[in-house]
Design goal:
Layout (H helix, E strand, L loop, with lengths): L20 H23 L9 H6 L6 H18 L11 H11 L2 H14 L4 E7 L5 E7 L14 E7 L6 H4 L3 H8 L5 H11 L1
Antiparallel strand pairs: 1-2, 1-3
Helix pairs in contact: 1-3, 4-5
This protein binds manganese (III) ion.
Manganese (III) ion binds next to helix 1.
Length: 202
């Protein structure tokens, strides 16, 4: 069964003014849709057809550029839409907050580490908050559509929060001001979803 573009869990304009409507329309309807259809084309007729996206990425041949780029793009954006919400922002609570405090000392220190990962990723890529088995969390970044599930990537664990820092994610509204986009992202983070991701993968 082929992968399908997941529906946005809110309207295109729901994240205004932090993420603008036109960017959401193009980002979901063109970019994510493109990764999805190209992933399907890349795995059609191979042993990967019918596997879960997590299984494909965890076991992939990193030399397979079509699966690496489009499988990463499919997975990364599917996570990205879910970890944002028009009712987002604020700070996490419960065991996720405890794990963040254990790793970084405070929420503000986590925010600085995550923001720095996003701002200093050269060119296109993603910033991540990942969880390791046992519950420890870590911040890292990856280039292009790579992610921590893939073998040999500089960080590992399971992504529970991701931020797209490709220019297509912010250029219409923020132009070259990536730091302003990163700051705005914190107003829409869906911490309930991130906590659910943490609980499911710790
Ligand atoms: Mn993108």
């Amino acid at each position: 069964m082929a992968f399908e573009l997941p529906a946005l869990p809110y309207a295109h304009d729901a994240l205004e003014p932090h993420i603008d409507t036109r960017t959401m329309e193009i980002h979901h309807g063109k970019h994510h849709a493109g990764y999805t259809s190209k992933l399907n084309a890349a795995i059609e007729g191979t042993e990967m057809e019918g596997m879960s996206i997590e299984n494909i990425l965890t076991n992939m041949d990193m030399a397979n550029g079509a699966v690496r780029n489009n499988g990463g793009g499919y997975y990364n954006h599917s996570l990205f839409w879910k970890v944002m919400s028009p009712n987002g922002g604020g700070t996490p609570s419960g065991e996720l907050a405890e794990a963040i405090n254990a790793a970084f000392g405070s929420f503000d220190a986590f925010k600085e580490a995550f923001s720095n990962a996003a701002k200093t990723q050269f060119g296109s890529g993603w910033a991540w908050l990942c969880v390791h088995k046992g519950g420890k969390v870590e911040v890292c970044s990856t280039p292009n559509q790579d992610n921590p599930l893939m073998p040999g990537v500089s960080c590992n664990g399971t992504p529970i929060l991701g931020l797209d820092v490709w220019e297509h994610a912010y250029y219409l509204k923020y132009q070259n001001r990536r730091p302003d986009y990163v700051e705005a992202f914190f107003n829409v983070i869906n911490w309930e979803q991130v906590a659910a991701n943490y609980a499911a993968n710790k």
